[in-house]
Write a structure and sequence with these properties.
single chain, 10-stranded mixed beta sheet, binds ligand 26Y, 6-stranded parallel beta sheet, alpha/beta, 25 strands, Rossmann fold
């Protein structure tokens, strides 16, 4: 039998409809008339997949044959969002699919609603990984995204009496049409045990004698490029018990117990940890990290590279990009593979390893830097700990050679920290091992060099670089905001989707009255669409004519949702008490979207406060039509795609020097929201690009923050000196938002007055002044819309395509394939 190559179904309405009905019959086992909406959604997804399949086979074959470098993005998180629309768009099938389904009597919109988004990430870092793989596919860069196929992604958030409760995210329950299991490509991953030396033909070598194993089974997802026919791979690993029974238990007759015990290992890929800043040092998390990184390295070397590959040439064929410290255990793992398995000399192996890794840091908060206790690491990965010790010994020798015997410096730079107990500093290991270290916005990269990794930057100035983050214009403009996209395409042609700098062409239209009207009409329409979405979720709708003021991001003290609340309470109090000129206050809806880590008590109290204030303000007749607070539960990528196009004002109000970059700030500016923000993260670059007239800057600069700390920050002084601030805080303390119960928000209030690590009170006055400027600007709609257009026109730099070009040039030294 001749084996036919894979042929995509005909790219016509009939071809699509035929394939869809076949999939409905043969994959779902139903007929059109007996199918429900989930059957139809799955059959539609399978159909889209069928079109992409041939390309995918080609691209994987090419990857094996080619001589190009592959970018292996190692990330514990991918916050993908829904797949259907993205894949339809990439493969130019949206219209065909819509029409084909209509012929079957199905409204494709009904099917869109069924998809549960894979929420395999916490927030910024995970969403960034998803934007990057989209851009790399679109730019035809051979890429494999490696990660974990968590059975439960980020929890579903619900509110009970204004307080967050967490529910499991069973995203796989209704089927998972976008990925394929490949059990034949499983890797065995080992843990624990001991190490021993042995004589290998006269050479003394070390080997690891592990205690237990787990199978890593890869699930491949297609990552289609936009309109270029390319399909890259996202390979997520699932932990499956091996068939190697504990023979002792097995033979002692306790068959059931031995099966139960081995399935224990399957917990490794069970659930995404919902913390995104304070690592808990949990053993299971270290297991997750090693599990996916070891499987990925073995997969790349064993399955992606050709069988006869000369391992010394590895750096020519791969760069492993470390998305924060989570995959850094890959450094000693590659050393183990090269030295223990491939039997290279240490120095040769180290030279290869250093070229194969690069490290992106996403934080500045000291408590967010991952460390692993030596005890735990040594128990779980004894060979890796030995390797880390040796890396550290040789590194510290280099430090002595370079800086002399400065014991203090040696202690500070050591990969092993001694206090409070011995631990491995993963950021330092990544910095020592990586060919490059980058921050995610200019200010952040500067602060990494000046503070967090200062000694390392002095030692290796050329190692440090910046790549400012970016976001994919396909998902966050073309798909999320179709009306604005059509308007832009009409004005500039369609090329902007892959060349976002073309948006500059809109600058000239900012002064065009007709264009402004159409732009404003799109914003209004997006608000109505959001309002319908909120109502469908059982929330209050939006009010016509309100400014939509949004703060959407994880709940964190450093991001200062509390400062936003103080502004709301102060405005509310000002109107109610008659202190404020009501006519100068623009009607506003404040919209929050935020999840808090389940164990983060203060963040959960802030959620409670927002909901409590919202309930009182939204119900008070005295501010009716003026102020409204909305906090839809379970903010996720799908909801973001509805909120962002509707937003007028983007709140980016972190304390300067704390937000590494932010990416929501970019998405909002790109969709024509004006930013009110501090000089922090990528806000700095946004402001420079859009211009001071189109950005509301407030607050202390990073050096001013440092200076105030140094001099001794006393938040209570700010409380004493500012009557409006006092009134706002007093109102919260009085129980006005807690049925008179003063104890409810007492911990929050005293934290503000006597601690306030993130200096909300110090920036309050400046923030309120900036909000007055916002009100004044919004009152002049013509000029506001003009600014909004200029924000869109000048945000092209924040495309993740540009970010990928920067990585390719500064870090990866890889090129697209033709
Ligand atoms: C170690 C574990 C607790 C952990 C898990 C997740 C630590 C951190 C994270 C996630 C961090 C994160 O999302 N950082 C954000 O990365 C974005 C992309 O670079 C930045 O825009 C944003 O400023 C930063 O907070």
């Amino acid at each position: 039998l001749a084996i036919a190559p894979v042929v995509a179904p005909a790219a016509s309405v009939d071809g699509f409809a035929k394939q869809f009905l076949q999939n409905l019959n043969f994959d779902q086992g139903v007929t059109l008339s007996t199918s429900d909406v989930n059957d139809q959604y799955l059959a539609l997804a399978y159909t889209v997949r069928d079109y992409l399949m041939a390309r995918w086979f080609d691209d994987r074959a090419q990857q094996k044959a080619q001589q190009n470098k592959t970018v292996c993005y190692l990330s514990a998180e991918y916050l993908l969002g829904r797949q259907l629309d993205n894949n339809l768009l990439a493969s130019r099938l949206t219209d065909i699919a819509t029409e084909a389904l209509a012929q079957c009597g199905i409204d494709i919109d009904d099917l869109r609603q069924v998809e549960i988004e894979p929420g395999l990430g916490n927030g910024g870092l995970g969403r960034l990984a998803a934007c990057f793989i989209d851009s790399l596919a679109t730019m035809s860069v051979p890429t494999i995204g490696y990660g974990i196929r968590y059975e439960y992604g980020i929890f579903r958030q619900a509110f009970a009496d204004g307080q967050q409760i967490e529910q499991p995210d069973a995203w796989l329950r209704m089927g998972s049409p976008w990925d394929f299991a490949h059990p034949e490509a499983a890797q065995t991953i080992s843990f624990a045990g001991t190490t021993e030396t042995y004589d290998d033909d006269g050479v003394e070598r070390t080997r690891w004698v592990p205690e237990w194993n787990v199978l890593a089974v890869p699930y491949n997802m297609m990552v289609p490029g936009y309109h270029n026919g390319r399909v890259n791979t996202l390979r997520l690993w699932r932990a499956v018990a091996t068939n190697a029974f504990d023979l002792h238990t097995f033979n002692s007759g306790d068959y059931v117990e031995s099966v139960r015990a081995q399935t224990f290992a399957e917990n490794i890929s069970k659930v995404l940890y919902p913390e995104d800043s304070t690592p808990q040092g949990k053993e299971l998390r270290l297991q997750q990290q090693y599990f996916f990184v070891a499987a990925s390295i073995a997969d790349f070397i064993g399955n992606v590279l050709p069988d006869d590959f000369d391992i010394e040439k590895l750096p020519e064929r791969v760069i492993f990009q470390l998305n924060d410290t989570h995959p850094v255990i890959g450094v000693p793992e590659l050393m183990r593979v090269l030295v223990d398995e491939k039997k290279l000399e240490w120095d040769a192996a180290w030279a290869i390893t250093q070229k194969c890794f690069a490290y992106t840091c996403h934080t500045l908060l000291p408590e967010a830097l991952e460390v692993w206790s030596v005890d735990l690491l040594g128990r779980l990965l004894p060979r890796h700990l030995e390797i880390i010790y040796r890396i550290n010994d040789e590194f510290l020798l280099e430090v002595r050679e370079r800086f002399g015997d400065d014991e203090m410096l040696i202690r500070n730079m050591s990969i092993i920290g001694e206090h409070p107990s011995r631990s491995v500093r993963m950021a330092y290991l990544a910095t020592v091992a990586g060919s490059k270290v980058n921050g995610v916005a200019e200010l952040h990269s500067q602060l990494l060099r000046d503070n967090v990794l200062k000694d390392f930057a002095e030692m290796w100035p050329d190692k440090f670089t910046n790549v400012t983050n970016g976001v994919t214009p396909r998902r966050f403009l073309r798909l999320a905001n179709p009306e604005l996209s059509d308007l832009i395409t009409e004005a500039l042609g369609a090329g902007w989707t892959v060349d976002l700098e073309r948006l500059r062409g809109l600058e000239a239209l900012a002064d065009d009255v007709d264009f402004r009207e159409r732009f404003a009409a799109v914003k209004a329409s997006n608000k109505r669409r959001l309002s319908r979405v909120l109502e469908a979720r059982g929330e209050a709708p939006l009010d016509d004519g309100h400014m939509l003021d949004v703060m959407i991001k994880r709940l964190h003290e450093y991001k200062r949702q509390t400062l936003k609340v103080l502004h709301i309470v102060s405005t509310y109090e000002g109107i109610v008490s008659g202190r404020l000129d009501v006519d100068a206050v623009q009607p506003r809806t404040f919209l929050f979207g935020a999840k808090a880590a389940p164990g983060y008590g203060m963040a959960k109290r802030i959620i409670h406060l927002i909901n409590a204030v919202g309930e009182v303000v939204s119900a008070d007749e005295r501010v009716k039509g003026k102020l409204k607070v909305l906090y839809p539960a379970n903010y996720n990528v799908t909801l973001a795609e509805r909120i962002i196009p509707a937003a007028d004002l983007s709140e980016q109000i972190s304390l300067a020097g704390k937000e590494a970059s932010g990416t929501g700030n970019m998405k909002l500016a790109l969709n024509g929201a004006l930013t009110i923000g501090t000089d922090d993260g990528a806000n700095v670059e946004i402001r420079k690009l859009v211009g001071d007239d189109n950005f509301f800057l407030f607050g202390m600069s990073e050096p001013e923050v440092e200076a105030l700390w140094a001099e001794g920050y006393r938040p209570a002084d700010f409380y004493q000196d500012d009557e409006e601030l006092r009134r706002a805080i007093d109102l919260i303390a009085s129980g006005a938002f807690s049925d008179g119960d003063r104890s409810v928000f007492e911990p929050l209030v005293s934290n503000l007055l006597y601690d306030d690590r993130f200096m909300a009170l110090a920036d309050f006055r400046s923030y309120l002044d900036a909000q007055d400027r916002v009100d004044a600007a919004y009152a002049d709609q013509d000029s506001w819309v003009r600014s909004a257009i200029l924000n869109v026109a000048r945000s092209g730099y924040f495309s993740s395509d540009r970010a990928m070009r920067d990585y390719l040039e500064r870090i990866w030294h890889a090129t697209p394939v033709s």
